[in-house]
Amino acid sequence: MELGENCEVMSHVVLGGPTRMGTGNRIFPHASIGLDSQDMKYGGEPTSLEVGDENIFREFVSVHRGTAEGGGVTRIGSHNLLMAYVHIAHDCLLGDHVIMANGASLAGHIEIGSHATVGPFCGIHQFTRIGAYSFLGAYTVVNRDVLPYSKTTAPRPMEVLGANRLGLERRGLSKEEVTELDKAFRLLGRSKLNTSQALQAIEAQGLRSKHVQALVEFIRSSKRGVAK
């Protein structure tokens, strides 16, 4: 177990390893960080957890190390807030400035892009991706990739409500950039075009900002399909 400078570990915290943690992290009571995976296939192989700087792990958060099958490493970036009872399973990859609200749970092999917000009690299926800057409403059950920049909610099935306008503007995107994303989301979700046709229409209409291009690349690289 390696702790960087200025980390605060409060009472009744359990730390396992191998775990490497950067500077300025705060771990609240009864959190469990770096213990073995719950994956039934895990056989005690040497695996690890890597954590960046200035993350907050609130009460009863649990984070597990990776598995040999999944690459051996669970990674959490920097400046993330994991609220009470959040669970992060084996081989998950979190970017930076991610917020996970109370009771949100990740199965194994999940990727969450930077600046994403996961609402309370969301359940995320293994091998799915949550795109950067996206917002998931409370109780959303996710079994397909969630588009970056989107605002998505459920009960079932998931429904994409469009670009996460307020959240994106708070994160520093210009009104022009948000408007372009809005146009792309309308083509993807509110037109009668299928996904391939919508991607062609996005290109034909000259929507080529770096954020729209990131959205398009996310869709094209999806293995589970995306929620629309």
Q: How many E strands?
A: 23
Largest sheet, strands/sense/barrel:
9 strands, mixed
| Percentage of β-strand residues | 25-35%
CA-to-CA gap between the ends?
42 Å
Please list the strands of the largest sheet in the order they lie side by side. 2-5-8-11-14-17-20-22-23
Give the number of domains: 2
Low-confidence stretches: none
Radius of gyration: 18 Å
Q: Globular, elongated, flat, extended or rod-shaped: what is the shape?
A: elongated
- What do we call the CATH homologous superfamily of the largest domain? Hexapeptide repeat proteins
Could you please say which CATH topology of the largest domain applies here? Answer: UDP N-Acetylglucosamine Acyltransferase, domain 1
Structural class assignment: alpha/beta
Looking at the chains present, what oligomeric state does this protein adopt? single chain
Mean pLDDT: 94
Q: What fraction, in percent, of the residue positions are helical?
A: 10-25%
Instruction: State the CATH class of the largest domain.
Output: Mainly Beta
